[in-house]
Sequence to fold (455 residues):
Amino acid sequence: MNDDFLYGLRKPPPARFSANLKARLDRQGPLDDPRKRRTKLVTVIALLLGGGAFALASPTVRQAVFACIAELRATDERLVSSRPPVPAAKAVTPRAVTPQATTPPTTSWVWGGPSRNSSAEPYAPPQRDRVEIISSSTLLPFTTLVGDRFVRTGPFEAPRVQSTGARDALRRFCRGVGLQQTDVAAVFRRMEPQELETCAKNRAGPIFEMKVGYEAVVLARKADVGALPLSRRDIYLAVAREIPDPAQPSQLIANPNVTWRQVNPKLPDERIEVVGPAQTFPVHQTFIRLMLEEGCLAFSGTRALQSTDPDRYARTCRTLRSDEAYSTAGDDDNSVLRRLTSRPNAVGIFSFNFVQQSTRRLVPSVLDGVPATYETLSTGTYGASRPLFIYVKRAQAVFVPELRRFIEAYASDEARGPNGYLVAQGLVPLSDAERFKSRADARVLREFQTTSTGP
Fold:
């Protein structure tokens, strides 16, 4: 390009060109639709800019371009102001968590969450720190003791243990899964098939079962005196506060028996002297349930009270006499043994473990013709014993992170091994093979299935 050409570009456009452009703009008229007006303004600006540098060199054209740009901005502002306002976001109130609303994803479960092969998204349900346990009175002292020891091993909340009957405990246990549901049930019998079906119906499964051990009580006398063969019926007639009247069995009277022969003609004519542990010792409750109450049920009149008058039944079948025929020692087996030293013909109430360890000092009584041995306990043929179980809902581990550690503490040898602290309270330990298997199952909460109700 030479200087003459550039000079020509700087020259103002012909007057006719400017007049035609102005007339064209005037013919546009007002536009009702801001969107259409904006489109045409952009088109005009593009045409003006497309005219080249010679058009921009003209003051008139520049003025027209700047006027179009100003009008374009005003049109954009009108477009923005004409849009409907965006409604404010509504505050979302968190929904209260209910047991039904916190059901884990439908997936295969292992201890603590979904299995590795699950296709479900990561799940983070609400959690709590305290293990919730429902227990029959039989396991209440054992379970409470495990909870106390468990708290000492780390920064854990003490488990909450509620006491009720075995049937009610399992009913409440099988209600479902969630924050508000029970984690563990501790009972003195195995779960029945219909109870397991109820758990499945309420989606409370899978269920883990662990046999804790056995509870058993043994009557014994000093070795130099010899054993006294007894039945549970004999024991009830000897130490219960009230017994059926021999003349009118439907009537109850204060216990008049003074000698064993009055209880049973086959027994020696010796004064009734029975020494038991304090009520705080678990063996005391085992004696009440498995000997005294079972002997009471041998009579049809007292058996009928279970349904007709439960309060009278409890007073009749679970209350000991308070005279010299029955006395209490301290809160352990040794205190009962010491009491026998001053009362050589007395019968002592002991834990099975203590009698097994004291064969040189004590001779156990045969109960209803069956001796107390590990074999008769495991087969259920010895009448004053029964197995003890805990049940755990595996899915509850998602809501209670410390549940696994608590079950491992319950399954440990420190608790229920031959020298465990539960054994010192009267729990009869399982065999080594049974204990090893249940401890291995506890690590993974192996699913439980039942087809029988035996031990």
About this structure: Residues 52-56, 96-118, 450-454 have pLDDT under 50 and may be disordered. The first strand starts at residue 109 and ends at 110.
